[in-house]
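Take a careful look at the protein record below. Let me know whether the structure tokens fit the sequence:
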Amino acid sequence: MAERGIDVSYETARRWALKFGKAYARILRQKRPCPDNRWHLDEVFVSINGKRKYLWRAVDGEGEVLDILVQSRRNKKAALKLMRKLLKTQGYVPDAIVTDKLPSYGAALRELGLSRLHEFGGRKNNRAENSHLPVR
């Protein structure tokens, strides 16, 4: 702005960000490419301030992180929270949900009525396991 001869204070820039920031963010989210229809879910132990927590992560078939959630437990309630948050933010139900053999995923999917989409076993969930490597 200064190069064009317009004098703008930091406060003006802050007000513009508050006024127009949400609209720009919404437009950018709409133009973002749609994630793959195959979601991979996994959890990993992390230590935060000396306490053991679980980092729940969802990635699509391309390896793009869809959502992250930190919980103190690794149970059905935590898995359900991740899945509800994921379905709400993405806005659609995927063709397949790939997980490891943790029973919490199956219980949460049954409660949501999505158990027919559940796939697990073998090395199917390597996509989510590889997304944890930078954290480990």
